[in-house]
Design goal:
Blueprint (H helix, E strand, L loop, with lengths): L2 H12 L7 H4 L4 E4 L3 E6 L2 E6 L4 H6 L4 H9 L5 H9 L2 H26 L18 H15 L3 E2 L5 E3 H4 L10 H6 L3 E3 L2 E3 L5 H12 L6 E10 L11 E11 L4 H16 L4 E9 L2 E10 L9 E9 L1 H7 L7 E8 H9 L6 H4 L2 H4 L4
Parallel strand pairs: 4-8
Antiparallel strand pairs: 1-2, 2-3, 5-7, 6-7, 8-9, 9-13, 10-11, 11-12, 12-13
Helix pairs in contact: 7-11, 7-13
Bound molecules: 3,4-dihydroxyphenylalanine.
The site of 3,4-dihydroxyphenylalanine has 12 residues, from strand 11, strand 12 and strand 13.
Length: 362
Amino acid sequence: MTRTQIKKHLEELLGREIKDVTEIEAFGIVIEFREEECLIKRGSYETSISYDLGADKFFTAQKGFFKRLEPLMKDIQDKRGFGQLLSSWKSRVAEISERHEKARLEAELNKKLSESFADATLSAPVLSMGYEHYLNKVRDEMLAVFRAMGYTLVEERELEDEYHNFEALNIDADHPAREDQDSFYVGGDKLLRTHTSTSQIRTLEKMIKNGEEPPIAIVCPGVCYRRDAVDATHYPMFRQMEGLVVDKNVCFADLKGTLIEWAKAMFGGDTKIRLRPDYFPFTEPSAELSVSSPDLLGGKWVELLGCGMVHPQVFRNVGLDPDVWKGFAFGTGIERITMMRYGIRDIRLFAENDLRFLKQSL
Ligand code: DAH
């Protein structure tokens, strides 16, 4: 580099005119601020410093400017003058260094962007929506009907003891129904409930314990378990919905009126109901409800539900006086109603989780 070139370069760096190049050569040292690095020369001594140290550290860092100048400084007499010259270059260095840092960050960002290039022309992934299960759909429909009639929803435990599943419901130890319904015992007298009728006892017990008394009207949907062999209409796990109303002046006509309302809401305004005597240990009298509707199996009678007036012994078991309180109860299977509603012929489909089946519930 010629002296004129050095002058020009330094003038650019200093941002002012240098009258005499000896200003920088006065100390016998040539300092050249190149774009990519800074060069220090004196005689045969030559060293370069990278701007990557950053503006702050450029002068002070271990491998920085002053450190490199140290061996040359001892010969300089006018240390003060030299120091002033150096400090006038500081802002220049800061500028170059800043430019470098900016370029570095930009390169880094571009690299990242090029690595994670998002292709806006790709089609969005198809999200598949869930489907409401047939059984939940029908359960909710039934709940809505009973809620409209003023019933409260309760949910009860699936793990029961023999007392609440049988005895309290007047099904004593050697009752044939108990044999029929023998369930999955899980140790001691604990079993998975065989019906939702347990909710009658649990609800009344809770009410008495809280010092409250009827009237009450509840519906309790839930899963029940029985030791049934699996076939198209039997599954060891199934759902029921129980209903219970207790008040002072409840009679069989109330039960019948309720069931007519429910049947019409579920199966259409043309639905007829039929009640025939039946037997359940926890209701007296007991009945079996069948419905007939033009839309349902061509108007054939279909048995749907067991019901009756709450047995006096059930009231006694929970601590209610049967001479004061009357009630009716009913229990129905949700699977059976769902199968009829949608023409489903195999109960096993409900539990198989085959999407081709579940999707059709939309
Ligand atoms: N718990 C009975 C069953 O599982 C159904 C039933 C019958 C419920 C008569 C009732 C009732 O509430 O009154 O077969």
